[in-house]
Amino acid sequence: MRTVRDPRGTTWICLELPEVPVDQRDAAAALPADTVAIECNSGAERVIALVAPGWDDTMDDTTLSKTIADFMQ
Fold first, then answer.
1. Which residues pair with 37 in a beta bridge?
2. On the CB side of 27, how many CA atoms lie within 13 Å of its CA?
3. Residue 5's closest CA among 51, 50, 54, 61?
4. Is the pTM of this model over 0.70?
5. Which residue, among 32, 41, 42, 6, has the nearest Cα to 50 in the 3D structure?
6. Which of 1, 36, 40, 55 sits CB 3.0–4.6 Å from 14 for a disulfide?
7. What is the DSSP-derived secondary structure letter of residue 8?
8. Sign of the alpha-carbon torsion through 64, 68, 71, 73
């Protein structure tokens, strides 16, 4: 689990999901086989993002915040 504050000042709580959600499996199939899904929730918004394993240790706050923004679109 990680928390991150985005440029708008919104705090996000991100958790790794046990599996990639059904509606994102086609997108995950185009990525490396070990891709994992994370759910990030701000209380008002929810984002499911596809990331590399170990994201909670390897992604800095700026990269995690950008990833959340990218998957919001």
1. 50
2. 12
3. 61
4. yes
5. 32
6. 40
7. T
8. negative
